[in-house]
Design brief:
323 residues, alpha+beta, Double Stranded RNA Binding Domain, 21 strands, 13% strand, globular
Length: 323
Amino acid sequence: MHSCTQCGRKFSSQGGLRIHMNIHTGKYKCTECGKCCESRYYLTVHRRSHSGEKPFECTVCSKRFATSRELVVHSRIHSGEKPYKCHVCKKAFSQSSNLHSHMRVHTGDKPYKCSLCNKSFSNSSQLQKHKRHIHSNRRPYDCPYCGKLFKINTELKRHVRIHTGSKPYSCRHCSVRFARSDQLKRHLLKSHSEGTWLTCNICQKKFTTSGDLQEHLRRHGGVKPYVCSQCSRCFVTVCELKRHQLVHSDYKQFCCGLCGKHFKHKQYVVKHFKRCSISSGQIVKSEQGNAFPSIPFPLSLLLPSPPSPPSLPPLRSRPLKSS
């Protein structure tokens, strides 16, 4: 093994170490932000993050990408190709990195530990997502249509599809389209028997995602790891905790697009909107033909963006009960 004297990173070949050293010498340095890259190619790719250039376009859904590799990986969503298979459970993946992370399910290895609550994760992205969702109230991403705020950009992108009606995920068997990848996965399992069901070992209920299964198992065990920082009440999921925290706040983020009345909870504005549209004679029909929007997002373009939410103490979580 060949080790870098600057950062300690190890390489299997001298050539790999030599290329890596370009980062420390600043041979390929971005003039916009000062980031150093290991080769001219990676510098060119990095510069696209500043210019917004995405020269590679998907022929199926027209989504664009900065690199050809990103396009290849994305194309597997449409083709269903999963060339990387787990030798333990035969589950397949579209990326080798996903297979590598998956193997920790079998080994139980969770090398990434949160410094705030000591909860451990099998990969770094899960740890970063955990910190943003649980230990931070910062919401830097706002919807250009309605002003709703989000902690991460992927949540905003998913939300914007409610306004645009975009459905980028298509079933290759029957061409039904979906707004989210998990909806497509559920459809493939239920309608075409493609994929692997995850089964609860207690009641045999089946799930399409590991997250749903883990939440279900917590309900069996009565485990409530998410704690309200205001009253110490505990919850099974982050969503339940966030919904509860509105009790401690006067912030009303949901607004009727017809009369301007504000509500704390989404379900209340949906019920109100139905009554309001009937009483005002403005029966609003969605694309699905319902008398009120089938997707219960309450904010209207006719109204100003909602006020920023109040600053709340960071959410706390406690370690899960040992099994």
